[in-house]
Design goal:
single chain; alpha+beta; five-stranded mixed sheet; four-stranded antiparallel sheet
């Protein structure tokens, strides 16, 4: 028997004993009261019968021997002590052949005086030596005049002998009920314990690191609510585990990408310098190798600068120089800066500045850098002779800036990872550090700007920057 079953049984047993005591006490009181009422009614009935019989004997003529016999056996007839008391307190006599045989004791004589005084039935109860003594009295009237009083003295035991059968019945019922309660408590405990055991097993699984688990408890009580919360916790822990695994994999990929991005230019620089130093290449070929070393050094420097820049931007404690500024002015400055790059591919940039100012609190240089990076991507992935469209328009909930190209587009499977560090879509096959979009995202987040990409293969990509109205001055 488990602990809960023992507790339930003890609770049931305690309640049963308590109710049994209450029931026994109530039953005892009810039985005593009922017995008392029946006894008083019986004594009254006997007293009235004897008094009526005596009145008949005195008012009518009849066999004298029958009267004497009746008086002699009054105690047996009444099944108690019967006294016929006269007005003066002595034994009553009426004529030669009608006389009481018992001399009334003092208590009976005193009680008879009350009967004569009231002129009707009287009843009293006294306690003597652990027993109740009952007196019942009825006047005997002749011609409307009380000439005698019938006094019946009876005793009743105040012990518990009369309650023994009741106690036996209650005890038997209690034993049977206790046996039933054991079965019932075991049944109830199993119903309670089963969901608790399931919850305990689930918690152990969670503690061991298995988050793909559930209690499978369906209950409308508090246990069901607890099970639901644990199931919800398991789902959250599993989601956190997957997210942790994803971040861990991202960290591994990040380190791998850094190693790859750094290894390539370093390898080229080393091999080129070794060839020059060993005299393998000379003359114009050596100059070509030197130019290649310079180009790789510049690329390596750009990569390191981008990594440092991204690290600073993603550090929330790294301050940026914010002030009241015009967002349209930063966009116009960025467009002007990339026109030279666009001209090399015969790409035109279509931008018409809207009227007014879009004032906000931000870092002018960082926002210009964000737009330059977005425009540079648009130019890089656009075919020669195409057009990049820059649009700025006000909306009901803020402002929106769109930079749209007509390049190769981004595959749908790459869209969810496109803002990750070192991630490059395979569709474009362009050189770069893979940090441009990550830097754009970081700058936008530091200014409360939402950035997203819309793209379709072979149709182009649209970079959207939206700023809520409450972020503007």
């Amino acid at each position: 028997m488990n602990k809960i079953t023992k507790k339930l049984f003890c609770y049931f047993a305690a309640l049963l004993v308590f109710f049994a005591v209450i029931a026994f006490a109530g039953f005892s009181l009810a039985l005593s009261y009922h017995t008392y009422q029946n006894h008083t009614q019986e004594l009254k009935k006997r007293a009235e019968t004897i008094a009526a019989r005596l009145e008949d004997f005195m008012e009518t003529s009849g066999p004298k021997q029958g009267r004497k016999a009746y008086l002699r056996f009054l105690d047996d007839i009444a099944m108690a002590d019967v006294y016929i008391v006269s007005v003066d307190g002595g034994p009553f006599s009426y004529g030669q052949h009608f006389a009481a045989t018992n001399t009334p004791p003092k208590a009976a004589a005193e009680f008879a005086a009350h009967v004569f005084e009231s002129g009707e039935y009287e009843y009293s109860r006294e306690k003597e030596a652990g027993k109740y003594v009952f007196f019942a009295g009825m006047p005997v009237n002749i011609n409307g005049q009380a000439v005698a009083a019938v006094v019946i003295r009876d005793t009743a035991d105040t012990g518990h002998d009369g309650l023994v059968p009741a106690i036996s019945v209650l005890a038997g019922c209690l034993v049977i009920t206790l046996m039933i309660s054991v079965i019932f408590s075991v049944f109830l405990s199993r119903r309670f314990i089963l969901p608790i055991q399931k919850i305990a097993r689930t918690v152990k699984e969670l503690a061991s690191g298995n988050y793909v688990t559930a209690t499978a408890v369906r209950d409308k009580t508090e246990l069901g609510e607890l099970a639901s919360e644990i199931d919800f916790l398991a789902e959250k822990l599993e989601a956190a585990r997957l997210e942790s695994s994803r971040l861990e994999q991202m960290q591994k990929d990040y380190i791998s990408n850094i190693s790859h991005e750094l290894r390539t230019p370093v390898t080229v620089i080393r091999s080129s310098l070794e060839a020059v130093c060993d005299g393998v290449v000379k003359g114009e070929k050596a100059v070509e190798y030197q130019k290649q070393v310079l180009a790789e050094s510049i690329s390596l420097q750009r990569l390191i600068n981008d990594m440092l820049e991204l690290s600073r931007l993603q550090n929330k404690d790294f301050p940026i120089e914010k002030e009241n500024m015009d967002l349209l002015l930063a966009l116009e400055d960025a467009v002007r800066a990339v026109r030279v790059i666009a001209a090399k591919k015969s790409i035109s940039i279509l931008y018409q500045k809207p009227e007014g100012e879009w004032l906000m609190y931000g870092d002018y240089g960082r926002l210009r850098q964000m737009f330059v990076a977005a425009l540079d991507n648009a130019i890089k992935y656009s075919p020669d002779g195409q057009q990049v469209v820059v649009e700025a328009r006000a909306q009901a909930d803020g402002v929106l800036i769109s930079i749209r190209d007509h390049g190769c587009g981004i595959p749908p499977e790459d869209m969810q990872n496109i803002f990750m560090r070192f991630y490059r879509s395979r569709q474009g096959n362009k050189k770069g550090s893979g940090l441009g979009l990550a830097i754009i995202k970081s700058i936008a987040e530091r200014h409360g700007i939402e950035v997203r990409l819309e793209s379709a293969l072979q149709e182009g990509t649209n970079a959207l920057f939206s700023l809520a109205a409450d972020k503007m001055l």
